[in-house]
Structure of Glutamine--fructose-6-phosphate aminotransferase [isomerizing]:
Amino acid sequence: EKGAYPFFMLKEIDEQATVARHLIKHYFVDGIPHIDAAILKSIKQADRLYIIAAGTSYHAGLIGRRFFEKWAGIPTEVHIASEFAYDHPLISKNPFFIFISQSGETADSIQVLEFVKKAHYASLTLANVMNSTLTRDVDFALPLLAGPEIAVASTKAYTAQIITQIILAAALAGGHTDLQGQLSRLAVDMQAVIDGKDHIKALADDYLVNADRAFYIGRGADADVTLEAALKLKEISYTLVEGFAAGELKHGTISLIEHGTPVIGLISQSKTAGLTRSNLEETIARGAKTMTIATKNLASANDEIILPELTGEMEMFGPILEAIPIQLLAYYTSLGRKLDVDHPRNLAKSVTVQ
Ligand code: M6R
C-alpha cells in the first residue's frame, strides 16, 4: 500500500536507506560480509564473470563490475541480456554467470540462462522476487531484499542491486575490514539526500518540466549512472534524454546544445571531477543550462545538488548517492507534467517477452 504517498515511486525512493540497512543486517555476521561458502567457492574457480541483465538491472551491473574487478580481482564483463542471447562474445574457459533482476522474470535474461544451463556454466541470480524463473533455474540465488517494487520505474531495486554486488565482491575478496561501518554511514547519507527532496523538486520544475531534451554527463562510475539517470527520466517523463561519458561530448553530441538545453553533470570521482567540470563549462559556452550534482568533497559552492562527502575508498559508493537525485528529478519531472508516474505508457513492470 502506498499510504499517504501519491505514487509508489516516491514511496520506493524513500525506502532506499531502509533497504540498505536490511541488506547490512542480512549479509553481515560479526561485522564480516557473509555469503554462502558454496557460492564463493564456485565464483573463485572462475576466470571471468559475465553479468547479464536488462534496463536498470544492467545499469546496476555496470557499477558492480567495478567492485568485482577492483576488490575481488576477477575480470568482469557486463552484457545486455537481449544482445548476449543472440550475439555473445568469446566466452572464457571457466566463466561464471551472474544474472541481476528485480522481477526474476525478464524473458531476455531467461533466454541467456537457458544457454548457460545447456553449456553447464555456473550461475548465480541476484533477484528481488525470489521465487521466480531466474532464481529457480539457476545454481545459486541471493535476495535483494528491497521489498515489493510496484512502480514501473525501478528505484530501490537498483540501489539494492549495487549494494548486494558490493557485499558479494567484498566477501570474494576475503572480507573487508570496515565495509559494514561504511555501508551503515552510507545509509545515513542516503537518508539525508532523500530528505532534501523539496530542493530537487524545485530544480526539476526549473530545469526539466518544460524541456524537450536533456543530457546527463559524467566519467567513470558517474558515466554508468548517467545511463540510469537518462533511462529514468525518459521512461516516466517522456523527455528525450541521453546519458553518456562526458569526454564523448566533443565527439558529437555537443552539436545538440542550444540556448537553455539542460545538461546535468554527475561528479563523485576525484580523478575526473575537473575534466567533467570543464565539459560542463564547454556546454555553458554554447548556451546550456547546467546543473551539477557533486559530492561535498568535490563540490563548489554554486553546485545545484551537493551530496554528502565520499572520500578515499568510499568514493566508489558515489553511484548509490547519485541514484537518489536522479530518481527524484525524474519523479518530479513526471509529476510536474501531470503524468501517471507509476504507469508510464507502453511499459510493463516485468518484460516477459523477448
Ligand atoms: O525485473 P528486471 O530487473 O529483470 O527488469 C529489467 C528491466 O525491464 C527494468 O529494469 C526496466 O528497465 C525498468 N522499468 C527501469 O526503470
In short: The first strand starts at residue 28 and ends at 29. Residues 54-57, 101-103, 106, 109, 152-154, 231, 235, 350-351 surround 5-amino-5-deoxy-1-O-phosphono-D-mannitol (CB under 6 Å).
